[in-house]
């Protein structure tokens, strides 16, 4: 952990963000959607398509050789094309993923805290996400200040108020 760095995501990171979106979708071991299937699904692809837009922002965790090991990013989606965790047009939605071999070592929590700081620094007061309830990530989010605002069959929409 001590040797990990964090840097801002850039347009050059779009392929790695797709990698991490694939991980986020396939968090269930028995789910194995291909990259192609995910990118062909508009409800999933819109978390990364056209990265990066002017109001996109995110962070990349990197190992000592600068290899990316995780990413957390925010995107503003709209009522016309809402994400699973859509709350409103001015509330960006989080996606987070850590490379499998790096999981359970604090990278996700570090990225989450840092990307919330980055959002706060931009003057953003509210952020959202969607998480399938069975994913332990939901407990991480709750521990870091997210609360459930809407529940669906298997998933919750969670919101964090991050304003000062
Ligand atoms: C969810 C994810 C981003 C968390 O990142 P991570 O680096 O593995 O998590 P951390 O090591 O920072 O651990 C965060 C908390 O989750 C707990 N945790 C980690 N792995 C766990 C596991 N397999 N089962 C249960 N809890 C676990 C940790 O114990 C920690 O809590 P604690 O410090 O109170 O004990 C990462 O596991 C991941 O990429 N998963 C697959 C993609 C995904 O699910 N994305 C989110 C979709 S909503």
Automatic annotation (TrEMBL):
N-acetyltransferase domain location: 4-163
Protein name: Ribosomal protein S18 acetylase RimI
Species name: Micromonospora chokoriensis
Organism placement in taxonomy: Bacteria, Bacillati, Actinomycetota, Actinomycetes, Micromonosporales
Coiled coil: none
Any single Gene Ontology cellular-component annotation: ribosome
The UniProt record lists the keyword Glycosyltransferase: no
Keyword terms: Acyltransferase, Ribonucleoprotein, Ribosomal protein, Transferase
Entry's Gene Ontology molecular function annotations: acyltransferase activity, transferring groups other than amino-acyl groups
Xref: InterPro entries: Acyl_CoA_acyltransferase, Bact_Acetyltransf, GNAT_dom
UniProt xrefs under PROSITE patterns: GNAT
UniProt cross-references to Pfam families, sorted A to Z: Acetyltransf_1
SUPFAM superfamilies: Acyl-CoA N-acyltransferases (Nat)
């Amino acid at each position: 952990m001590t040797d990990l760095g964090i840097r801002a995501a850039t347009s050059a990171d779009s392929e790695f963000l797709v990698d991490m979106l694939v991980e986020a979708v396939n968090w269930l071991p028995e789910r194995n959607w291909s990259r192609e299937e995910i990118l062909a699904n508009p409800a999933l692809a819109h978390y990364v398509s056209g990265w990066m837009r002017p109001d996109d922002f995110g962070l990349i965790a990197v190992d000592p050789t600068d290899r990316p090991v995780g990413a957390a990013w925010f995107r503003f989606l709209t009522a016309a094309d809402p994400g699973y965790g859509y709350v409103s047009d001015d509330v960006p939605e989080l996606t987070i993923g850590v490379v499998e071999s790096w999981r359970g070592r604090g990278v996700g929590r570090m990225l989450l805290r840092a990307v919330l700081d980055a959002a706060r620094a931009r003057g953003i007061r509210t952020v959202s996400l969607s998480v399938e309830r069975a994913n332990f990530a939901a407990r991480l989010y709750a521990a870091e200040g997210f609360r459930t605002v809407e529940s669906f069959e298997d998933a919750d929409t969670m919101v964090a108020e991050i304003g000062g």
